[in-house]
Design brief:
- The protein is an alpha+beta fold and about 170 residues long.
- It has one domain: Transposase IS200-like (Alpha-Beta Plaits).
- Helix content is about 35%, strand content about 20%.
- Strands 4-1-3-2-5 form a five-stranded antiparallel sheet, with helices on both faces.
- α2 runs antiparallel to α3.
């Protein structure tokens, strides 16, 4: 069974503090606001740097087709969306813990820092139908387009359009 999941880098637009006008909420509970903030570039933009994005992508793909099946994924400057399927007896929670831990270590090495890289929370949705599956394929592929990113500002897996879904990407200037 495939699951749609997301990881978020950095801090809330109010730098991790509760503020009068914003409330940090997970997707599904009114998360569209948080997605809008992330797409607008709030929070850490560490993943905008290719030298950070590359080792993080390697961590995402490390156990593809062994412990998990990555159907598609996109790494934006501030967050990641994955459509993945745990294989065999693998548990999503353990897979995400491993991915987040390994990629945080790699990113922190490149950034010459330590400590928290990913926000503690991540979210997942069980894909319950073929219709939902295709919705999430489209959502992942179109997310960088919606955010107005040029192709060098994000990582998309696989690199071609998924399942013949046409996506218009902003051309590099």
């Amino acid at each position: 069974m495939a699951r749609m999941g997301g990881l978020r880098v950095g801090k809330h637009p109010c730098h991790g503090q509760q503020c009068k006008n914003h409330r940090l909420v997970p997707l599904g509970a009114n998360g569209a606001r948080l997605d809008d903030w992330l797409d607008a570039g709030y929070g850490s933009r560490a993943l905008a740097r290719n030298e950070v994005r590359t080792p993080v992508a390697e961590c995402l793909l490390r156990f593809n087709e062994e412990r998990l099946l990555l159907h598609t994924g996109v790494m934006m400057p501030t967050h990641v969306h994955l459509l993945m399927e745990p294989l065999g007896e693998q548990k999503l929670r353990q897979l995400m813990k491993g991915i987040k831990g390994a990629s945080a270590r790699k990113a922190n090495q490149v950034l010459e820092t330590s400590g928290t890289f990913w926000l503690d929370e991540s979210f997942d949705h069980i894909v319950r139908s073929e219709e939902q599956y295709h919705y999430y394929l489209r959502y992942v592929a179109e997310n960088p387009v919606k955010a107005g990113l040029a192709s060098h500002e994000y990582w998309l897996y696989p690199s071609q359009c998924v399942a013949d879904i046409p996506v218009c990407r902003k051309e590099d200037s």
